[in-house]
Amino acid sequence: MSEVAKSLSKCERPLNSYLNLSFCDVSQEDEANLQDLIDECGSLKISNSYSKTGFSRIFERTKNRIEHLELFGIDFRDEGQIVKILTSSSNVKSLNLSGLNVATHSYNNSLIPTTIIAFPNLVKLDLSSNSSWISDQNWVQMLKGLEKLEELIMNETNTNAVFESDWLPSLSSFSSRGSDLNWDSIFEMFSISEQISRIDVRFSTCPSILPQELLHGNPRITEILY
To answer: Residue 57's pLDDT is what?
Structure first.
């Protein structure tokens, strides 16, 4: 990828541009060449790519312009690499961390939940397919603190975390396809929600009676897929 990265580093850098680094083997030289370009990005996607440094050189400087960040299907040596990326992108509004693999981590004392909660503008979060390294305790810590979140995606997720009725007061869209969750507590939360309008629980372990009852009990619901 080195020659491509060099060419991109010489290009004109339009503000708030979109950059997609998918299926790439990114060297340290590539990261250095791409840093200035990514500084001006409004949207960045790194998917199924490899970096020996965990992309740390790209995020040595704060990325104030990034509002949409996707890190999908990436192997990280430890959670510190993820935390560094997140803390460098504090203005993110939409965050996708689905399908990550963290080789070593503190399962119950992760720094990732507090880092995500600290985002002041976060309205969309996708944490699908991360059950191997996000514990029940992590979910509780995260979800109870995301008061501005409008869309939550946790597809292919298994957790026994009990949702409280006062969590996620701004949530309007929820997707948990193929998941095994504490459904009674989730639908209890939805039953009194003033914002929820769309729910997708297809291919999950959710009993069909719960979405059926919710449709009749909460007039704000416009779509439930189950």
So the answer is: 87
**How far from 6 is each of 20, 27, 37, 50, CA to CA, in Å?**
16, 12, 11, 18
Q: Which of 13, 48, 65 is a domain's end point?
A: 65
Residues 52 and 87 in one domain: no
CA atoms of 114 and 133, how far apart (whole Å): 15
Domain boundary among 65, 94, 113: 65
Domain, as residue range, for 177: 67-225
Count how many domains the chain has. 2
Q: What is the pLDDT of residue 102?
A: 85
Q: How far is CA 196 from CA 26, 61, 96, 120, 189, in A?
A: 40, 37, 20, 21, 10
Q: How far apart are CA 174 and CA 165, in angstroms?
A: 15
* Token pair in block for residue 123: 């309205």
CATH of the domain at 180: 3.80.10.10
The Cα-based distances of 56 to 15, 141, 191 in angstroms read: 22, 26, 43
Q: Where are the alpha helices (DSSP H) in 10-78?
A: 28-39
**Joined tokens for residue 161:** 């975390």
* Global confidence as pTM: 0.91
Specify the 3-state DSSP secondary structure of 171: coil
Mean pLDDT per 10-residue segment, the chain (226 residues): 50 70 93 90 95 89 94 90 93 96 74 92 97 90 95 97 97 98 98 97 98 94 96
Of the CA atoms within 13 Å of residue 108, those in its CB half-sphere come to 2
Residue 116 and residue 213 in one domain: yes
pLDDT at 167: 97
